Amino acid sequence: MKGIQHRNYQAYRAKNPRPLARADMASTPPEVDDVYTLAPLQLDGLSLASVAGVETARLTEVKTRHDEENGDVNVAQGQDLLAAHPKRDKPRFARGTFVGATFLVTYRSGGPPRDLEIRPPIVALYDRDSDGDDEPTKEFLRANGFVTGKGSEPR
């Protein structure tokens, strides 16, 4: 089961005593600064920076919302979405509002590749709870510009 990391969990629970459900994660709790962004996915010629502790990383899924009124979400999936469109300046998913992205990350510590999902502004989902505490995961997010710098460190 994937671990859910919420940036300001105690403050959120103090204001919202009911259990945190998946539907709650779609909206930002009040008074919480952005921590994650997917804005780098709109850059021309984006490639994922390598960091110590991460063997490989691939973008495998991007969710974009094109119709705010109806809430329609388009999903692009593939083995490596950044490499799938080498003849274009931007991958075709670069239009619309990003609502989520999934990376398949292989760590140098071993084991099979694991999912790292980002849902701006405050949600990161990990295949293992310990991945959220690992320095390579935090460094990967920082090095590739997926942490905005607002608020505190990603958790």
Task: Give an overview of the whole structure.
- Helices cover 13% and strands 29% of the residues.
- The protein has helices spanning 9-15, 22-25, 135-143; strands at 3-6, 54-67, 72-77, 97-107, 114-119, 123-126.
- It is α+β, with helices and mostly antiparallel strands and 155 residues long.
- The model has no long low-confidence stretch (mean pLDDT 77).
- A six-stranded antiparallel beta sheet has the order 1-6-5-4-2-3.
- It has one domain.
Distance between the termini: 17 Å
Show unreliable segments: none
For the biggest β-sheet, the strand order reads: 1-6-5-4-2-3
Largest sheet features: 6 strands, antiparallel
- Would you tell me the structural class of the helices and strands? alpha+beta
* Rg estimate, integer Å: 16 Å
Strand content: 25-35%
What integer is the average pLDDT?
77
SSE succession: EHHEEEEEH
Shape: globular
How many individual domains? 1
Care to count the β-strands? 6
Helix content: 10-25%
> Given the structure, what is the number of helices?
3
